[in-house]
Amino acid sequence: MTALLALFSASSAVAADAPAEREQLAGVIRQLELADRLAAQAAHVTPDGRTRYHFDFQRLDTDLKAVRVGIADYLTPQRAQPRDPLRLNGDYAREGSATPTGARNP
Prior knowledge:
The protein has helices at 2-43, 57-75; strands spanning 53-55, 93-95. The radius of gyration is 21 Å and the shape is elongated. A two-stranded antiparallel sheet has the order 1-2. The chain is mainly α. The longest helix is centred in the N-terminal third of the chain and has 42 residues, at 2-43.
């Protein structure tokens, strides 16, 4: 009886965390969208031509989209089978010209 009660309380605790987790992940998606908008604005700032490295906003945009899609897929799964996660670039420093390649329009 005690084991059954412990199992029930553990499963109800997991069920209680599900809405909180969904809410937190939805908040993460909103923050990623904000980061995407801020990065889009920063991409249009003309970098100092004297610097050797420039931030690669296109790579950041690709990674932000991948994370957003991964969270959205977790929140609304399309299938029961696990999928291979997308690989993130992670390296956002570019060497070379001050004009970014593939700069996004607002």
